Amino acid sequence: ALASLTLSPDSAYNTSGKDLWDSESVEEFLSSLGEQVGGAGASMAPMVPFSILGGLAGRAVAGPGGMVVGARAGAAVPSYLLNMGDLYNSLKREGVPEEKAAKWASAMAIPIAGLDVFSFGETTSLAKAGRAPGMKALAKYIAKQGGLGALTEGGTEAIQQVLHEGTVSAASGKEFLTKQTLKSVGTSALVG
User: Fold this and answer.
1) What is the DSSP string of 135-178?
2) With contact defined as beta carbons under 8 Å apart, do 105 and 91 qualify?
3) Which ranges of 18-134 would DSSP assign to H, the alpha helix?
4) I want to staple 108 with a disulfide (CB 3.0 to 4.6 A). Which of 6, 40, 167, 175 is the partner?
């Protein structure tokens, strides 16, 4: 089942493939950074509508406290699925057999998604912004919440990458503390 989540090597989505830290010019660095940020934004995008829907459902069932719980639970669903697929693909690339890769990815996507939901936390209250009078108040609220979220996002992205790399290492026997692991963690912290 997880095999269907992998991307075809003939994917129409081509990037420069340059490592952020191996860029030879400012232009290459900024291009690579843009690709990384775009990928991060795309992975966060599904969390927003699920968080809002979860928050509204939670509020309907249990009031204001239910809104927070529902919003975080709603954000957790797409986060878990995306992280599980990404981890599964990494494990398969390292030669981990399909069944073993599926078990590792299914289990380790839980704490990784938990960190996503933690760092996404402040934006789960966006449903409250919908009641703010006028678009100016809504924009100000979203900007404030986005700023608060950005303070925690870099750190949690780095921790998530450590968990990801550690899982691949443990399941495949690949060395953990390498220059590439450090680059991946650094990139995650910067992009986050």
Assistant:
1) HHHHHHHHHHHHHHHHHHHHHHHHHHHHHHHHHHHHHH---SS-
2) yes
3) 26-44, 47-93, 98-120, 126-129
4) 167
Instruction: From 2, 180, 187, select the one nearest 80 (Cα to Cα).
Output: 2
Place of tokens 């939901």: 117
Q: Which two tokens stand for residue 144?
A: 């404030």
Tokens at 46, concatenated:
């599904």
Contacts of residue 3, Cβ cutoff 8 Å, sequence gap at least 6: 98
Mean pLDDT across 135-139: 64
User: Torsions phi, psi of 95, nearest 5?
Assistant: 85, 15
Mean pLDDT of the chain: 77
pTM for the structure as a whole: 0.69
Residue 12 DSSP code: S
Average pLDDT, stretch 57-71?
88
